[in-house]
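TEACHING EXERCISE
Course module: macromolecular assemblies
Task: Read the component lines below, then compare them to the predicted structure of the full complex.
Student: A.B.
Group: 4
Components provided:
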Amino acid sequence: MSLTSSSDSQRYGAPLRHAKLWTSNDSLALENGGGLEHVTICYETWGKLNEDGNNAVLICHALSGDSHVVRHDEDDTPGWWEVLVGPGKPINTDQYFVICSNVLGGCRGTTGPNFLNPETRQPYGADFPVITVRDMVEVQRCLVAQLGISRLRAVVGGSLGGLQVLTWAIDHPQMVTSSIVIAASARLSSQGIAFDVVGRNAIRNDPNFAGGQYYDGPAPEGGLALARMLAHITYLSDDSMRAKFDPTRLQPRTVDSAFESTFSVGSYLAHQGDRFVERFDANSYVTLSTAMDLFDLGDNAEKLAASLAPSTCRWLFISFSSDWLYPASASRQLVDTLVAQSKSVSSCEIESLAGHDSFLLEETMEGSGRMIHAFLANDDSPGTSNHFGNESRIAEPTSIFYAQRLDYKMILRLMPRDASVVDLGSGNGELLSILRDQGYAPLLGVERDQSQVVCCVERGLSVLHADLDQGLSAIPDHSFEVALLSQTLQSIVDVAGVLDEVVRIGRRGIVSFPNFAHAPMRETFQREGRLPKEEGLYAYEWHDTPNRRFPSILDFQELCANRGIRILEAIYFDSTTGAEILEDPNLNADVAVVALTRIVS
Amino acid sequence: MSLTSSSDSQRYGAPLRHAKLWTSNDSLALENGGGLEHVTICYETWGKLNEDGNNAVLICHALSGDSHVVRHDEDDTPGWWEVLVGPGKPINTDQYFVICSNVLGGCRGTTGPNFLNPETRQPYGADFPVITVRDMVEVQRCLVAQLGISRLRAVVGGSLGGLQVLTWAIDHPQMVTSSIVIAASARLSSQGIAFDVVGRNAIRNDPNFAGGQYYDGPAPEGGLALARMLAHITYLSDDSMRAKFDPTRLQPRTVDSAFESTFSVGSYLAHQGDRFVERFDANSYVTLSTAMDLFDLGDNAEKLAASLAPSTCRWLFISFSSDWLYPASASRQLVDTLVAQSKSVSSCEIESLAGHDSFLLEETMEGSGRMIHAFLANDDSPGTSNHFGNESRIAEPTSIFYAQRLDYKMILRLMPRDASVVDLGSGNGELLSILRDQGYAPLLGVERDQSQVVCCVERGLSVLHADLDQGLSAIPDHSFEVALLSQTLQSIVDVAGVLDEVVRIGRRGIVSFPNFAHAPMRETFQREGRLPKEEGLYAYEWHDTPNRRFPSILDFQELCANRGIRILEAIYFDSTTGAEILEDPNLNADVAVVALTRIVS
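Instructor-supplied answer key:
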């Protein structure tokens, strides 16, 4: 017998009543050398695998999580992702067969440092091998195969779970349709590793640690609690801690703890530390946090590209504005790399004060839940309803053309048939939806407003949450037939820079903009000496207009000429009559739609 | 004998060859109750106290610092602030008599937990009383009095040193001419306290801690090293750690340490931790970090105002953009409170990647050094050269009036005599300097550009480093006779909001702006249908102008009327001829200078 019993392995935390155990007969070769015999996997499932075996969703848990994602019945203890998974939830267990297993190296039923080492007949302790996220995924792959599933509808996870999702998509592209990566990055920052190092040192510095062989005696609870307290700080944000602890700074709650509780934040951390040691094994903490620190898809664009190249799935990346452990900027780096490889990818940076823990919280996962639901529903698998929410959720256009989008018709006239299109400033995806209906593909939106991004995903569109003024350098030269800039020019700071990008990214750029030299505006200005205010198109006051630039058609033409950009075709029209203007458009048209290309010298 | 000998007290770190000891005969009553008898103070001095005893500068050190600010001679060991203090340095020891003492509770010669407790004849250990920053300052006050100094020219310090400066200015206003507060705030954030709590718990969890009575045995070096490693992370920044450790992430330097050194950042922290325990006492660490956490000038504006009200000194606040322990926003809160009390205050937020430690680094203290030098030189004390650098450092004006500032003359015409003035968007302080020369006082600049702020301080002006669009709510109603907004209106996003502030802050607002409805611009626009480009005033392209708004005189007048703002007087002129325009200024003038006030209903 090389395994502890399941009751031994459940020394940590409440029993998982619905968990199942499966032990592999094959030995597991580890990425960093060595191997493990007879790996036991503890897992739970929800819903039913359908006949075609194509509705399975694998959920990957974070460092301190386990297989218990949600309760199985009303009497069950709550799981850690009740907000996202369950009947009628974004990951709908009435529709999907949901699987989650305790990770390799964990302490909740799957083989880990608290299992017996067959060589020594003692628990592994600190002799448990250094494992990687890839090893964790390999164990999951064995389980999935055992369950008779050849392809997963989706793999979903946050934090360490997100690292597993990345690895699944890279190592087993043929097995993954959709990947949802939440609050994760290509590698942890040096700052993040530093916090982990201090936590591990605290564990090892505990006199009870005894080189990791403490299972017969007292556990290194002080050290593990210190590691947890420290990590917990990194899961919150400065703002969320301020809100939680500042009002009662010197009124700590009463905790029965050996740790300092002078300050309210101290009593909270003491409580968190004390509770954690009841459910977690210090050796597992060292093992799993080391695996997180070792995870590395590359420290530069080239290595990152090589790592992600094998993936073939659809991607959705969700990050949180206040997450400083796996920050939005690091998520963006992954997204940019995939975009550069013309992979199918969407991203959204959720505004949240709650830090890294946002991915576990109801209030911050609402928008994410809507996206995840729509993203899963729109995967083009047989039997799914495509373009979820397309009709029901057309938000108000934010464009200055709120009354009618006459420019859409003009844009379509300038579009090559069946072209691939990137829409820079895609809003709620209305124009891209029209293009999709007419057969254009592939399509990508770029939008800076979070709620508009959610709308795009709900329309089943690929969209990047990004600000045009922050650069589009991730998108390679000529990676789309057409790059659209529709009624966005006037809100841009770096007009010339964005125009350069339009004709770099697209073989053809199509730009529509309001002509501020339209006759009525000139006349008002000449006659009255005031910036004109009209209904609709120009209904802004001079002192609060969101417009940043006031282009005329002639100004625009000159700028193009100066930047080596050729105007291929142009349509000028009067948006009040809808008439196309052929004569002196700079005087007579109020809208311009122009097709551009870079002059190759 | 209630004291250890000086050699005992120097168990930690290299001997301070030039340090002097002085022991008080009086007993020290502590802020939180209890007291200490015969406190010994270890201090160093540089330079000479002048005959009038008015050239003394007190430097306050940070948590892990000591009295050794700079070397006394070439053979001496370097000090911790060589960049700022010394002959010819910003705090010039040829000119000033510089004093620094080890803080109360420290371990480098001043009474602390490693001193003998007269009651028990054992070292205090963990029985050393809970002390506060106020107690530290009281000990310094005794020393300063002992040195025959009744008033300090300046008190200067960063981090814990900054907290001491704040306390000096509040508790002993009659003794402080100038206060320079660097990288400090009214209270530490809950996140910052949380890190300290974990550090102290690590010390106390060390088996060698023994309730703090470890002086006869091994010290709790593991716990203290952990606390130091953790704190060290908070002294750096995410960016600085990335730069330092990412290129060699998995190539740690070889360190002889019991701590983990798998990652380069780990080996660095191990080294930092191991070195720290050679020079620092764990009980002192607990004592001093607790004092930092307890420091609290108030958690709301009202309490903060009450705390700062007694101060009468000139203030200079320096913060660093990447400091997340005592962030710039927290420094701003102090500045805002002092501004609201019409105290003399300047502030600058230095752009730096180096985090909290910036205040110790040569590369980030250069700009600060220039400001500190100028700030000290301009304190109006007898015998100092006023308005340091006033002539030599007139930078290029950034205004669109780069050729000539005709508007200054017009502004002066609208100014009540001897008024107090705040200049919103003060640039390099040129206009304020002119006003000062004409007797206007007090004066305050507000400027968002760091290098311009430095110029203002070098001119001897009070200036706040702030962005008008971020709000001016700190400045109370009618706290200045005149609020100036000179050639800044067109770069503001929230024009109406800032105008409201102008007439709230000043009894009279004076606003100068370019008139974009000037005849040549109208004609060009009407004739050519393009935004005009001219030399000088309007020499921008439509697509890259820094101007955000394009006011005309009529538009401006209408906005004032709509917001309940009365135009008291106005001067309109043609900046090319210098002629004042009386007839149809909206057509014939290119510049407007307008005096405004709020209509009281």
